[in-house]
Amino acid sequence: MSDYRAESGLLQPHHKVGIIGYGSYVPRYRLPASEIVRIWKGGQGGAPVKEKSVPGLDEDVVTMSMEAARNALARANIDPREIRAVWVGSESHPYAVKPTSTIVAEAIGAVPNTQAADWEFACKAGTEAMQAAIGFVGSGMARYALSIGMDTAQGRPGDALEYTAAAGGAAILLGRAEEALAVIDGSYSFVTDTPDFWRRAHSEYPSHGDRFTGEPAYFKHVTAAAESLMEAVGRTPADYRWAVFHQPNVKFPRRVAGILGFSQEQIEPGLLSGRIGNTYAGSAVIGLTAVLDVAEPGDRILVVSYGSGAGSDAFDIVTTERLPEARDRAPKTEDYIARRTEIDYATYTRYRDKLKLS
Amino acid sequence: MTNVSIIGIGKTEVGEHWETSIRHLAWYAIEAALDNAATTEIDALYVGNMLAGGLGGQDHLGALVADFAGLRGIEAVTVEAADASGGAALRQAVLAVRSGLVRTALAVGVEKVTDESGSAVLAELSTGLDADYESVHGLTPAGAAALLMRRYMHEYGVTLDDFAGFSVNAHRNAADNPLAMFRNRLKADRFATAPLIAEPISLFDMAPLADGAAAVIVTAADRAMDMVPQPVRVAGSALATDTIALHDRRDPLWLSAAAHSAEAAMAAAGVTHADIDLFELHDAYTILAALSLEAAGFADRGEGWRLAAEEMSPDGTPAIARDGAIPISTFGGLKARGNPLGATGLYQIVEVVQQLRGEAGDCQIPGARTGMAQCLGVIGATAVTHVLQI
Predict the structure, then answer these.
(1) What does pTM read for this prediction?
(2) Is the ipTM of this complex over 0.90?
(3) Is-contact A118 A65, C-beta < 8 A?
(4) Which of A59, A67, A91, A162 is catalytic?
(5) Does A99 contact B at CB distance below 8 Å?
(6) What's the pLDDT band for A1 if we cut at 50, 70, 90?
(7) Is A91 a residue of the active site?
(8) Long-range pairs of A257-266 with CB within 8 A, sequence gap ≥ 24
């Protein structure tokens, strides 16, 4: 336990753990924010993003997680039967009772010697699963563990969240540092009881506390997690080539980067929300995949998620020589973003089941 | 009757006090006022508040705040008159001291709106309208102000841009007020394209609802002379009412309660318009600023907006600027200091006292001797006016 630092809260396993494969998925449909402005605001006013991704009629968190998981497996190039955990974090699990993760595990051939569970912590369920997977591998209980953050987020028609509630996410496959494309040097989790955003059981759409979602929620938790992690590992913003912050819109991650002392250049490749919206549990991890798609060996990356309720997970990650070769084995995140079919609001209401016929 | 003077003032920052309860907000303002007056002997407490019952589940603020402020046992009640509650609370404190039955009275205005989200706050805010004839049909305070503004633009042939000067002035002044909610400057050319709240009322027309508390301590003028170096005399105090429903007013563009209370307060103080060095008015919406200037007699009917227009002044400053003929919103007004509803009327009083004492910092009007403050309940069904002198 020599590395355990109770006073800092830094999370570091016995054995170093890293990312051995990663994959993302974004549905092809795009709803321009101007369509929502047209329907709900008489065509007047601005919007927090340019457009958002929309899942097709036959897509949900299960199918999208499979796509991302297969991409992660392709990059890792391992036997899926060696995966000991398949954990899917989402706030859009298709079933209230019955795991998403068992379907995904079966689909990628990771059964039956597998832990499988669904995670829920609003937008940070994906990184929560990632931290648990680090523990699973770092303790020696598993050689590989798969964590996924994926969502088909819900936005009440006409609500401020409808502009950004989007679909997408990523799978992060964890293994030993020796096999890794990127090594996780440490992580940290900062949690309080802060009711900024929630969805009650049986409610179709979430509720939120308007401006309360800003300062006391997003900014407080993201900055606290980032600063605590950087202090614990003895690094400053200048030590990182890239940074990814949870991106509910474009403004928040840009502002929090400024508050913490990161430049806009450092967050640029991972800042996708302007073009795909807020992918909720997928938001921070898909940002990480976009950075891994362009990073050079030795680049250090800070990733900070945010989940309402509320908490932030922060990760200190450094890429290895294995990354460039692995990343071309699967579609890149920007490939998915470029694969784009624009739809109008009417089509969107059909795809998202917003017309109730009975 | 006993003459009344202000011996202590206190206020909190206006804004989003997510982590501060309503009782703490009230206490912080009271604590500052007690320190300012260098006394702890308070005989009666009047709490101005509008929404604590509906938004916070907490009525009975008189007893609550008295106890929490260490004044357990004294006479204490809540005074409610929508966003004129703060001015009405001071009015009660002044009446109590003038009657001779109360020696020292404390008026505190306090509001906490950020515990609930937008739609809940809007529903509660609309309780200040006529429930049976207005809000039941969906009218909101911003909607009522929008009707007034539309009528004003129609009657007097003015445009949306003609109101920009009020908000530009408020933000410019708030930039010098460390306790203001919005300290950013506003560009006049952004005004007409601001997001709409209730057409033609936009985000830049309407004051932001906020949390905050302000407190004022009054006592008999002859005692005050011995207690503090610069007592401020309450030279005039008047409260008047009008129909609560807009459609019941014979002349909607005339704020008769505002006119009556201003006239009465000025008459009691024996002052004319030329004597008044600054006027803290109720700019919850820019249209109310224009109508208040007209009702109080600083502008002819249909001309109130001109006092905010820069071209009216040879040196390019509008009449309402701090160096103009009749400065308003000298600390930012409701628009930029923020509108903590039941506390707003007492923020105005605290700011006028700061001006008269020469303690207004960068917001100071040089040599101010007489100041007037007027708060309105929603769109003027209640109007409370105070004239203060040093």
Answers:
(1) 0.87
(2) no
(3) no
(4) A91
(5) no
(6) very low
(7) yes
(8) A259/A219, A259/A223, A260/A223, A260/A226, A260/A227, A261/A236, A261/A237, A262/A237, A262/A302, A266/A237, A266/A240, A266/A241, A266/A242
